[in-house]
């Protein structure tokens, strides 16, 4: 029996045990434990902690060291809560859950974009509680698909995909996903893409993010420019009482143009929108990611 298979199976068994415990607890207690695990991970993962400190220090060079370290600690706490939130995605089921935990701002911008009948790009990033859109978008009557990378452990990956699709959305594999994205848009569905991760330089453009060059996928820009697809920035922030504030910003319509400079310019525009959203609460962004690479 291959070693990788045994490792995957063991990880999956432990993962199911964790889920059983989390779902047996009251939601508030489970999230509180998640916060504690997040702070513990700051201690157990020194390389991640160092990377977060370096990234935040470069982004905010004038920030006092004590404030910076406090923000990094709060970010780890946030990541721990986010991990538990994802395990509880399928516990949101009804309109009552929608009304109890979610508040929306600018929902009319999303409605207007759907009316163009060209599909909708939902622009977002690893900010706040980015996974909960898999629940609230279908519940709002907005058909949506979510682009996600596949995990190394296929058993855990399939479980997470079931969680993401429990509300009625669909998961699109990020690898070779352009054709699936275009098909979804042709069905007048929204396609949510997180545009704030490092992309292989050979298929990326380089734009500034917090004043530093970052390789970024141009896929939203290219498809939107070619097909006239509206782009609606959407960000979900967790409140102190573990509710969610969702902000939909006015839709963006990019002029048709195949010129590379236009692609870079428009990708920079979308990246700057994500940066502005991160600055509204920097402790809820994924600072442990190697976003800037040469």
Automatic annotation (TrEMBL):
Residue ranges that the Swiss-Prot or TrEMBL entry lists as coiled coil: none
Example of a GO biological process term: glycolipid biosynthetic process
Keywords on record: Acyltransferase, Cell inner membrane, Cell membrane, Membrane, Transferase
Primary site of residence: membrane
Localisation: Cell inner membrane
GO molecular function, one term: acyltransferase activity
Cross-referenced InterPro entries: LipA_acyltrans
Protein known as: Lauroyl/myristoyl acyltransferase
Naturally occurring in which organism (per UniProt): Desulfuromonas soudanensis
């Amino acid at each position: 029996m291959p070693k990788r298979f045994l490792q995957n199976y063991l990880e999956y068994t432990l993962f199911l045990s964790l889920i059983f415990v989390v779902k047996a607890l009251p939601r508030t207690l489970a999230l509180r434990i998640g916060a504690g695990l997040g702070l513990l991970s700051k201690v157990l993962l020194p390389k991640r902690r160092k990377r977060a400190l370096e990234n935040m220090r470069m982004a905010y060079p004038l920030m006092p060291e004590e404030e910076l370290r406090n923000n990094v600690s709060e970010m780890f706490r946030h990541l721990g809560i986010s991990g538990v939130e994802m395990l509880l995605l399928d516990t949101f089921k009804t309109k009552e859950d929608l009304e109890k935990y979610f508040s929306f701002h600018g929902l009319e911008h999303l409605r207007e974009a759907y009316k163009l009948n060209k599909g909708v790009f939902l622009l977002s990033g690893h900010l706040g509680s980015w996974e909960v859109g898999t629940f609230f978008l279908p519940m709002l009557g907005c058909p949506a698909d979510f682009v996600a990378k596949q995990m190394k452990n296929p058993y855990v990956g399939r479980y997470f995909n079931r969680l993401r699709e429990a509300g009625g959305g669909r998961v699109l594999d990020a690898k070779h996903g352009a054709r699936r994205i275009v098909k979804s848009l042709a069905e007048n569905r929204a396609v949510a893409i997180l545009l704030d991760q490092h992309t292989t330089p050979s298929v990326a453009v380089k734009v500034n993010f917090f004043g530093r060059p970052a390789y970024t996928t141009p896929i939203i820009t290219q498809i939107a420019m070619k097909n006239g697809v509206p782009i609606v920035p959407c960000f979900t922030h967790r409140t102190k009482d573990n509710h969610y504030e969702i902000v939909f910003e006015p839709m963006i319509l990019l002029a048709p143009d195949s010129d590379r400079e236009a692609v870079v310019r428009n990708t920079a525009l979308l990246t700057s929108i994500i940066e502005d959203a991160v600055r509204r609460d920097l402790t809820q962004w994924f600072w442990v990611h190697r976003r800037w690479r040469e």
